[in-house]
Amino acid sequence: MDAASFIMKQTTNSQSSYVCVCARVTEEDFRKIINESDTATYGELKSLYGIGDRCTSCEFEIKDLLDECLTEKIIAQRAAKLAAPPAAKKPAKRVSPFERLLQRLRGVTPEKPKSAAAKKAEPAGPVRETYRTGMFFLRNAEMEATLAVSNLQFPEHTTNPNGEVTFDVKLHGEDGRLLATSQKIRLANNASIEMTAGELFPEVKGDVVGAMYPEFENLVQTGSLRPYAVMINKTPRAGLARCHYHDKFALFTDPGFFQTNSPFEPGETCWMAISNCQTKRYESDYHLKYGDTILDGKLALEPMASRWVKLEELFPGLDQKAPELSPALFWLENPQHVMVYFFWRLEAGNVWMAQHH
User: Fold this and answer.
1) Residues 354 and 244 sit within 8 Å (Cβ to Cβ)
2) Tally of domains in the chain
3) Which of 39, 172, 240, 345 is the most buried (most CB within 10 A)?
4) Distance (Å, rounded) from C-alpha 304 to C-alpha 282?
């Protein structure tokens, strides 16, 4: 399976289990790639297919699966070789003196010089691309999100292919409008940065519900540049407690559902943070199932719009303290990709936790 055909392949709803969620690679895809590759390495998988190239959370599983697949491939090749009948020796082909002379001449014939047009068509170096990503943003009296980015060299590379990187960050508000664009930010090789909304967007005041969209220029690879938001609990009891969540930007269609299986746990309040990162309207049915009961509703987000909502507010009249509400399942059904996160506050200690879908 070549990289181009892999990138362009269509995803169906039957593909719901990935070994690398970011690159959308199923185990079936992975095994096919290994079987058709002569020199499969972790570095090759990253550079050709993007496997393990973004959040890196699958790195150890991918390396283990790679070892397993290569071992299986070697065993299968040895078994096939042993089972195959011995090949009959072909009689040596007689080569005439004239043919031997031609072979010698071909062996020393100098390479034909390339034309100026052919030289100009050759790439001068590695292909560089713009990398856009995004994540939910919130600022109010209790909570504020910051942006954290690292530009680090991965262990399998002798140098960081990107070197210094340059990017800016756009902030879209609750209704989808562009509120601000940061100044250009330069991040040196093997450097990290964390910036507040005040540093990124000093002109934006007050409470904000929205999404941040970092845009990196001229990248060879995304590497470690996947950005994270750090949600800071500013209330006095919390002591500036922090929880983090990474970007969920994508423009493809998702199989399966956006869901959480812990919407109404005793002593916890659950919020959904959702940002429509596409330039088309997002509309979806949403559902809550507990016991034999299923409740439904409809949700809509304009292009680039965001919402921060308690899940209980989506179901008016729902008694959150009822014991039958746990365990429960909440899900959205539109396969159009949106960035969805769930946040829980443990009421007894004012402790926050975050999870993406």
Assistant:
1) yes
2) 3
3) 172
4) 9
